[in-house]
Amino acid sequence: MKKWRGKMVWLLPSLIICIAVLLLFNHNYQKMTEPPDDNWSRALDIGTTPILRSPHAKMMKGNATVSFLTPNGIQDNSYNEDFEKLERKNHDIPVDKFTQFYIEEDRVVYTDYYHLYDEESGKKISEIQKFFPLKSEASTEMRISYSV
Where are its TM segments located (predicted)? Predict the structure, then answer.
């Protein structure tokens, strides 16, 4: 009996501490895994593209605009502050794996690796060696607005 009493001095407090830690872990785990509020975090379906290129994102007139290539041309989606789709524009241009584009307001220029074209007229603007469209104007506009 004395052996058990000597072990109970260490066993009982250890058991109480383990149970308390497990209860605390369970409480915090349930708190962290509760479902989020509506519209707190959701996936934003922008679209699919046949070419492995990231979409172009920019701010126009206070709305976020995302442009990307589709099999039929360029799709331009406009979103408000809550990321609800406001407008969808399609620009019909020929698309292949070398197609790159640049959009400024309603003006679209694109390249097929060798030539630069205007979307409105479809005419060749120039022969080119390389074309470097801006990846994202959203961060550039923010920097300009802070520096002015």
Answer: 7-25
pLDDT at 138: 45
DSSP string, 62-115: TEEEEEEEETTEEEEEEE-TT--EEEEEEEE----TT-EEEEETTEEEEE-SSE
Locate tokens 């290539």: which residue? 69
Residues 6+ apart with CB under 8 A from 24: none
- Mean pLDDT taken over the chain: 79
- Paired with 76 in beta bridges are 67, 89
pLDDT at 17 over 90: yes
Please compute Rg for the chain using Cα positions: 29
The percent of residues in the chain predicted with pLDDT above 70, rounded, is: 84
CA-wise closest residue to 56 among 117, 110, 102, 107: 102
Specify the pLDDT at position 81: 83
